[in-house]
Write a structure and sequence with these properties.
This protein has a single domain, classed as TIM Barrel, CATH 3.20.20. Helices cover about 45% and strands about 10% of the residues. An 8-stranded parallel sheet has the order 7-6-5-4-3-2-1-8. Helix 3 packs parallel to helix 4, helix 4 packs parallel to helix 6 and helix 11 packs across helix 12. The model has no long low-confidence stretch (mean pLDDT about 95).
Length: about 300
């Protein structure tokens, strides 16, 4: 199955106003900011969106709004995962996939399934969904690592499992997947700081947090790597490395929401249990943004 999920995807935040309601004006600004910045696809309702704090009604409204504003300009990926396989399959069956080009499905969290359980979980998802699946491996959040053999077996067994967002930070595992994967299955970075080196060993893009704030710079870096121009990409990579470090110093999406507030895109508002970054991190982000000189 052909996939469009190469290049730079952006895991968008869900902007809130101070009382916790969704700020749709800010969401519209953010979508225009990243689309005009040259990204390749939009990822809604992922970890960075605080999706776990949104009601079913709010999730449906956010997806409808994203579809309306994107208006066919880019592919849209919807976060759709969980740790109750049967309930997730039922949710998939009741989802409106009109204008949705794929789903990003995180490894089950808390349960800590073994590799056989992970394989069966994602197999059920692949059988239920009418759109391509991107696996999301983020052991630091889930305590559940999708191993190399499991990822490759899923890719070979299910034509509609088309990529993995790899955020394990384990380069041996990442390289083994790239080496052994079938044609048409891609590895995407799930860690902004590691995107450049991951692409150097064969990854084909990223699902990024940083690109909420700097879509042009980050997507250009990824594009240059895909074109085989590592020196041009390296300059952009290192220009943002200090920002990336500060961005995740006190939690995600707290860091990116602080940065977006400095840039005037959305308010620095989160839903509990997430809270804003501490004053020192906020100042680091503010200082970087004020002094940054883009290489573009």
């Amino acid at each position: 199955m052909q996939t469009n999920f190469q290049g730079t995807g952006v895991a968008i935040v869900t902007p809130f106003i101070q009382n916790g309601d969704i700020d749709y004006e800010a969401l519209a600004r953010l979508l225009e900011h990243i689309i005009t910045g040259g990204i390749d696809f939009v990822v809604a309702l992922g970890t960075t969106s605080e999706a776990v704090t949104l009601s079913t009604r709010e999730k449906n409204e956010v997806m409808a709004f994203v579809k309306e504003k994107v208006n066919g300009r880019l592919p849209i990926v919807m976060g759709l995962g969980g740790n109750n396989t049967a309930a997730l399959v039922e949710q998939i069956k009741s989802t409106d996939f009109n204008e949705i080009d794929g789903i990003l499905s995180v490894a089950p969290y808390y349960n800590k399934p073994n590799q056989r359980g992970l394989y069966e979980h994602f197999s059920r998802i692949a059988q239920a969904t009418p759109v391509p699946v991107i696996l999301y491996n983020v052991p630091g959040r889930t305590s559940s690592n999708i191993g190399t053999e499991t990822a490759v077996k899923l890719a070979r067994s299910h034509e509609n499992i088309v990529a993995v967002k790899e955020a394990s930070g384990d380069f041996n595992q990442i390289m083994a997947i790239i080496k052994n994967k079938p044609e048409g299955f891609e590895v995407l970075s799930g860690d902004d700081a590691l995107t450049y080196p991951m692409m150097a060993v064969g990854a084909k893009g990223v699902i990024s947090v940083v690109a909420n704030a700097y879509p042009a710079e980050f997507s250009t870096m990824v594009r240059e790597m895909l074109k085989g121009n590592p020196e041009k990409a390296k300059q952009l990579h290192y220009s943002l490395l200090e920002f990336i470090d500060a961005l995740f110093a006190d939690g995600n999406p707290a860091g990116i929401k602080a940065a977006l507030s400095v840039k005037g895109i959305c308010k620095n508002a989160l839903r509990l249990p997430m809270v804003g970054v501490n004053d020192a991190v906020f100042q680091r982000l503010k200082d970087f943004i004020k002094s940054y000189r883009s290489p573009l």
